[in-house]
Specification:
Number of domains: 1
Protein name: L-2,4-diaminobutyric acid acetyltransferase
Order of helices and strands: EEHHEEEHEHEE
InterPro entries: Acyl_CoA_acyltransferase, Ectoine_EctA, GNAT_dom
EC number: 2.3.1.178
CATH class: Alpha Beta
Enzyme class: transferase
Keywords: Acyltransferase, Transferase
Number of helices: 4
CATH topology: Aminopeptidase
Radius of gyration: 16 Å
Strand order of the largest sheet: 1-7-8-6-5-4-3-2
Number of strands: 8
Largest sheet: 8 strands, mixed
Shape: globular
């Protein structure tokens, strides 16, 4: 099966290039542990987001995700310090989808493949045994996330379809871009 990133028609569209050249990843530090979050990790997730360009949610959101969605969230720690996370959930109406809400990686770990390792950990969990698609929304300017999900499609030798999800006019104010849905799959032929 060929890896494809298919663009669907949408206002202000752009072309996704599935052949993006990326530098080889730096070595991931072997002192990093990857696992399920606890409620105590919620504050550290929020702090990591606050130091980045990610959309900031309330601290409550991160604590709640750790409490009620620990099976579909992943944290990475270096010497007990949180250096990365994924928050995700399986939509009740689409049990074959894992929706990735947010991925955060500390600046000390960027470019080392940590985000990919976090996604692989998530997909390999028992709770995702019936998951055949990974979905996420990504803004047009977020090239790093676009490349991450395109890489995931290549790793699974599957498709990456891109379509409009939420147009910019749905967001209050003038500073939020449209959100595009990236749908990777099927993961299992």
């Amino acid at each position: 099966m060929q890896v494809q990133c298919n663009e669907k028609a949408f206002k202000g569209g752009f072309i996704i290039n599935s052949q993006i050249a990326t530098a080889p990843p730096k070595t991931l530090d072997t002192t990093i542990t990857i696992g399920k979050p606890t409620v105590e990790d919620g504050a550290a997730m929020w702090e990591l987001v606050n130091k980045s360009t990610l959309d900031t949610n309330s601290p409550y959101k991160y604590i709640m995700m750790c409490e009620y969605f620990a099976e579909t969230c992943v944290v990475a720690k270096e010497n007990e310090r949180l250096v990365g996370f994924v928050t995700a959930f399986i939509p009740p109406e689409h049990q074959d989808v894992i929706f990735v809400w947010q991925i955060g990686v500390d600046s000390s770990q960027r470019g080392k493949g940590l985000a990919s390792k976090l996604l692989q950990e998530l997909i390999s969990r028992d709770i995702c045994s019936n998951v055949n698609y990974v979905e996420a929304t990504v803004t047009p300017s977020n090239k790093a996330s676009q490349a991450l999900f395109q890489k995931l499609a290549r790793e699974y030798n599957t498709q990456c379809e891109v379509s409009e999800c939420f147009s910019e006019d749905l967001f209050p104010g003038d500073d939020h871009e449209a959100e595009l849905t990236f749908r990777i799959g099927p993961l299992h032929p």
